[in-house]
Specification:
The protein is α+β, with helices and mostly antiparallel strands. Helix content is about 40%, strand content about 25%. The chain has a four-stranded antiparallel sheet with strand order 1-8-3-6. It has a four-stranded antiparallel sheet with strand order 2-7-4-5, with no helix packed on it. This is Sulfate permease, SulP family.
Length: about 160
């Protein structure tokens, strides 16, 4: 079970104006967030450790509760790496594989000690059954994050 302070930290990070990739659900109250996090498991990641590795078949979606993770992309040759994003409290990562079921397209490493809430597709289905309107709102918020990240990538590559 996720503590009230972790929920509060997640919400605080998500409401921060400079966090354009935060999970934007400003009208959700503590009970809504608690309902979501009932359908997750928590993981701690030590600074320097990987949470996600490119090419893995895992579909888990992660909500960052504490700390920061650096998302690293790879070129087609698989050798060249570049920092795609720094993801902190209030945001999510792993959404692409969560939605499309494909292998991980990037890697994510903890830049400091982190805590995340993990949601598998099965846990999402249980959440959706329990709270359909909240589940729908979550999907739209995740879609917004995907759109922002795609626009940033397009801009970076002049598309």
């Amino acid at each position: 079970m996720i503590s009230e302070s972790a929920v509060a930290g997640f919400r605080k990070g998500g409401l921060s104006a400079e966090r354009s990739e935060a999970l934007a659900l400003p009208h959700w109250n503590d009970e809504d967030w608690t309902q979501l996090f009932r359908f997750t498991t928590t993981r701690k990641i030590a600074a320097g450790d990987a949470l996600i590795r490119r090419g893995e078949p895992d579909r888990t979606l992660y909500f960052v509760l504490q700390g920061g993770l650096e998302v690293i992309t790879h070129s087609e040759d698989g050798l060249t790496m570049g920092r795609a994003a720094l993801v902190g409290p209030g945001s999510a990562l792993g959404e692409l594989a969560f939605f499309d079921g494909g292998p991980r397209s990037a890697s994510a490493w903890a830049v400091d000690d982190c805590q995340v809430a993990a949601m598998t597709p099965d846990l999402y289905s249980a959440f959706e059954h329990s709270a359909p309107s909240l589940a729908r709102e979550l999907l739209f918020a995740l879609g917004r994050i995907l759109a922002i990240r795609l626009r940033k990538s397009n801009k970076k590559f002049g598309v």
